[in-house]
Design brief:
The chain has 21 helices and 19 strands. By secondary structure, it is an alpha/beta fold. The strands form four sheets. A seven-stranded mixed β-sheet has the order 9-8-10-11-13-12-18, with helices on both faces. A six-stranded parallel β-sheet has the order 2-1-3-4-6-5, sandwiched between helices. A four-stranded mixed β-sheet has the order 15-17-16-19, sandwiched between helices. The structure holds thiamine diphosphate (TPP).
Length: 698
């Protein structure tokens, strides 16, 4: 399968970078209309969308300052990262997207959410509108579309106010609005947190042959986060047959929270320059005028076409400005001069388009005021409704945390039809025993055949078969579309897995050693574990993260840890840790079919152990069912993974030498934990000891 030779070539030369365009396009509405690139009606839609966002944001200010009180005793709680001044970006982007194109958004995401939903609604047919509207009463509206727009705004505001009727049932709030029906994969309160998710979504779009693009909207601050590098390199890999359909769209509003991009926290003037680091076409990077909705729209039309042509990934930097502080408490004065603010206020995208529409005779100043009044009233009405919507009740605290579904009954629909090679038959010895490592490979092979959405990736897993040769041979059977090597980018391995799982694949990703998950903690703890819950339980995350532990091999402190407890601490992720060949096969198959994220921990010293595994039997083992590894009367030992072998030997010695009868319980899964079986055993023996290889601290 070796495809590329890397030879020692030392020819003198130099690396040349192509220029990166800055502000090349300076559109005016008049030019655009005369060239037939936009109609006045379309321009009015852009204008109205910007007005809706602006009024939405000022309503959030009014709610938080008490200027608008929807009912007596109302108290606003929650984040307020406002988008005033940056509206041209959300509206310019969303106006060119298809309903099914995806976006990921940021903590400053109200505008993205409002615009994505709005432009998706403009494209819906009646059936889609009805589906979107659900039970929302439509009698008082002139059309289903009008009703859908109100319902959309209501759901966004209700989410902000933490209500059950919100897009995410109030579990996400203002920094986590998502709507999968309209392609909004969600906003993220971790700066840069969505980089890899969006990249994984783009990978899944490509692998499933969908004609869609992904727009990863991020702030300038996020560009300095490690995941930015991992994600942009990931998207630029030469191994993709076609460029990934993703644009990283930087809303460079000049500041992180207060740290200034230019002249302070970076060494460059334009973040688009970073594109040169990732491929030979600079990721087609450019810097655009982000205070003009027509410029953004024009750039995004080109971007979309390019991405659908397989020319991604693309990097766009939009020069923009937030008119308010970082949030409503920040007045934005400690780090910004009046002169600077004034200069940017003169660039106001709403006023600019208004003036152009007036110049073209499409609006009068009075019409414009009227348009603003319509938007203001609409937002006021939906806000009153949203404020009076339902508060979640404590008993529903965990609703949506885990999906109840699996892919058990998919039948033949997703079966892999064409294998490149006949799958290997893993041999059993005369006692029906096989290597633990082969049991893993057999489970993977069977599940990859059973469901073509299952893909496997990680560091060195393809040709080499991974550090422990577990996946050796799968490449020959399934090819690189289904199993591939990745850069050494643990955070991106996990984060892309999440994005791909959200968009239809069932990835099994590998982190070589559990020690390395520490590089992926945000992706694991904040993203993978929380996504389903924070997005209201509205989507499934069929993602398996295989990893290994290996205390006892003499590899010292960075290759020997048992960190399962850290991950078990995050609600939303299941943790599986098998001890036998039989269990590893059955549990891995269950993990792959589960619609929840699973951390699957294999012990390196178990790989060469043998155990009985029935041949030709498609069995799974349910999560949360402990195994009694040894029956006893006097004491219960709860142990899992490799150390259970020592426990079983010790139990034999105790029985023989001291007459102590030890019961050994192997929980198999730590989340969910089979408390009943453990409690039953302890009730019987009256004593319990837990044995594992994890540190004693904490
Ligand atoms: C990883 C992380 N670090 C710090 C923060 C605190 N924080 C929230 S928003 C923000 C600024 C982000 O800047 P940028 O990405 O440019 O987006 P902007 O707020 O300017 O839209 C910071 C530092 C965070 N939420 N996440």
């Amino acid at each position: 399968m070796k495809e590329i030779n890397v030879l020692p070539e030392y020819n003198p030369g130099e690396i040349n970078f192509n220029p990166i365009p800055l502000f090349q396009y300076r559109a005016s509405l008049k030019d655009e209309v005369s060239k037939g690139k936009i109609t006045i009606d379309e321009a009015l839609k852009l204008y109205r969308a910007m007005l809706l966002i602006r009024n939405f944001e000022f309503m959030v200010v009014d709610l938080s300052t008490g200027n608008f009180v929807p009912y007596d005793g109302f108290k606003f709680i929650g984040a307020t990262h406002l988008y005033v001044g940056e509206e041209a970006n959300a509206v310019g982007i969303m106006s060119v997207l298809n309903k099914d194109d995806y976006i990921t958004s940021t903590h400053r995401g109200h505008g993205h959410s409002v615009a994505k939903g709005l432009f998706a609604i403009y494209q819906m047919d009646d059936n889609q509108l009805k589906k979107f509207l659900g039970d929302w009463p439509t009698d008082n509206y002139g059309s289903l579309r009008e009703a859908a727009i109100d319902y959309h705004l209501f759901q966004a505001m209700a989410e902000l106010l933490g209500k059950e009727e919100g897009y995410c049932h109030g579990r996400g709030g203002g920094m986590h609005i998502a709507d999968f029906y309209t392609g909004n994969l969600g906003a993220n309160a971790i700066v840069g947190g969505s980089f890899a998710i969006a990249t994984g979504a783009a990978m899944a779009v490509q692998k499933q042959g969908l004609d869609r693009i992904v727009v990863c909207i991020i702030g300038d601050g996020a560009m300095n986060n490690g995941i930015a590098h991992e994600a942009m390199n990931w998207a630029s890999q030469r191994q993709w047959k076609k460029g990934l359909p993703i644009v990283y769209y930087i809303e460079n509003n000049q500041y992180g929270m207060t740290g200034q991009q230019r002249g302070e926290v970076t060494g460059i003037d334009y973040l688009s320059q970073r594109g040169a680091g990732y491929n030979n076409v600079n990721m087609h990077a450019e810097t655009i005028w982000g205070m003009n909705v027509l410029t953004v729209r024009e750039a995004m039309l080109r971007v979309r076409e390019r991405l659908l042509n397989g020319e991604g990934p693309i990097l766009v930097e939009s020069m923009t400005y937030r008119f308010l502080g970082h949030n409503y408490k920040d007045k934005g004065v400690a780090y910004r001069s009046e002169e600077e603010k004034k200069a940017w206020m003169n660039e106001d995208p709403v006023t600019r388009l208004k003036n152009e529409l007036i110049e073209m005779g499409a609006l009068t100043e009075r019409d414009a005021e009227h348009e603003n009044e319509i938007a203001r009233k609409k937002i006021e009405e939906i806000t009153k409704k949203a404020a009076n919507a339902t508060d979640p009740v404590p008993k529903d605290m965990y609703r949506g945390l885990y999906a109840e579904t699996t892919s058990d009954n998919i039948g033949e629909e997703y079966r892999t039809k064409n294998l490149l090679k006949k799958p290997r038959k893993y041999t059993r010895d005369s006692e029906g025993k096989m290597l633990f490592r082969h049991a893993v490979a057999e489970a993977l092979t069977e599940e990859m055949i059973r469901d073509k959405r299952v893909i496997v990736y990680g560091e060195d897993v393809a040709d080499y078969g991974g550090a422990y040769q577990v996946t050796l041979g799968l490449l020959d059977i399934f090819g690189r579309e289904r199993i591939f090597n990745t850069p050494i980018s643990e955070a991106a391995i996990v984060g892309t897995g999440l994005g791909a799982a959200m968009v239809g694949l069932r990835p099994v990703v590998e982190i070589m050693y559990i020690d390395f998950i520490l590089l992926a903690m945000d992706q694991l703890g904040n993203q993978v574990a929380k996504a389903r819950f924070m997005f209201g339980g509205k989507m499934t995350i069929p993602l398996v993260i295989r990893t290994t532990i290996g205390g006892g091999k003499g590899y010292a402190g960075q290759h020997s840890q048992s960190l399962e407890a850290i991950v078990a601490h995050f609600p939303g992720i299941k943790v599986v840790i098998p001890s036998t060949a039989y269990d590893v096969k059955g549990l891995l198959k269950t993990a792959i079919r589960d619609d929840n994220p699973v951390l699957f921990i294999e012990h390196q010293m178990l790989y060469v152990d043998k155990g009985e595994v029935p041949e030709g039997v498609d069995y799974t083992i349910p999560f949360g069912e402990a195994r009694i590894a040894r029956e006893g009367r006097d004491i219960t030992v709860v142990a899992y993974s490799n150390i259970i072998k020592n426990v079983l030997s010790a139990a034999e010695i105790l029985e023989k030498e001291d007459g102590v009868s030890v019961e050994v319980v192997d929980p198999r899964t730590l989340v969910p934990l089979d408390i009943d079986t453990i409690a039953k055993s302890v009730n019987k023996t009256g004593r319990a000891v837990v044995v594992n290889q994890a540190p004693y601290t904490g």
